[in-house]
Amino acid sequence: MPFHDITLNDGHKIPSIAFGTGSVNKGKDIHHYVEQAIDTGFDHLDTAQFYQNEASIATAIRESGLSRSQFFITSKYGFGNIRDALTASLRNLQLKYLDLYLIHTPTTITDIEGTWKEFEKIRGEGLAKSIGVSNFSVEDLQKVLKVARVKPAVNQIRLHPYNYSEHKELLRYHALHGIVTEAYGSLTPITTYPNGPVDAPLKKAAERLKVTPTQVVFLWVKAKGAVIVTTSSSKQHLEEYMAVGDLPPLTEEEVAAIDAAGADGPPSMVNTIRKLDLVRRTRILAMVLMGFVALRLLFSNCPMTAVE
Q1: For residue range 259-282, what is the model confidence (pLDDT) as tens digits?
Q2: Total number of domains constituting the chain
Q3: Packed helices 168-177 and 138-147: angle between N→C axes, nearest 10 degrees
């Protein structure tokens, strides 16, 4: 049961797992990592104007020997003149069109309605088959839909078990308007907040399925009907991710258990430090102490002004 395509509200289909070239790789030549992802089976490649590495994708596609039609390419507009940004992205990617073009974030857009109207023109001209948004709230989407002739096909958001409860209203809004959710940062419970409440239901499901907790997280994302956007420089990890497409789904009880544990929120920094081994705990506490000393020295050398 490989990863299936999801039909968008405009009739086009989107692969349900993507290799992201996110901000951690900003400005880097990562064509080797992209080639590795393609070799592993990723055909949905996600990039952005802000990442400054679109040319790496062009190199990887060219060296793969595969045709353009075998890929689904997403890029995102972040700043500046929209047409100039799109032209630059297409040039960097060496493409005539994008499969999906997103507004990267509403925080850099002064006129959401006007920007969306321009996106509709871009779609109408065939420069992007589908258009959508990223990091938009319900309020942001409402501004778009107020003027939209074409609804956003997707909203790409940070989604993981610890913020799922915060996003319930947004996800309901997506469902109401046929907007597909794309999820990035879904491994946060493992990479950022280990030893938290979600660990137990992840471990229990992993033991039942004889898989890894990482794979359980992605099964959880699939259960929410979202597109997985992930990345790694490790081929072993990429193979682990792609193998999720062949796994049976989580049970409703397992999904509910992960939801409930996530609603308790991530572990606090204090509790996380307590659960680390002695060496790692000592290093963190030493760094905190050094920071405190530096601040004391800084302020001891600065004249203070009285505040009334």
Answers
A1: 999 999 998 754 554 455 545 555
A2: 1
A3: 20
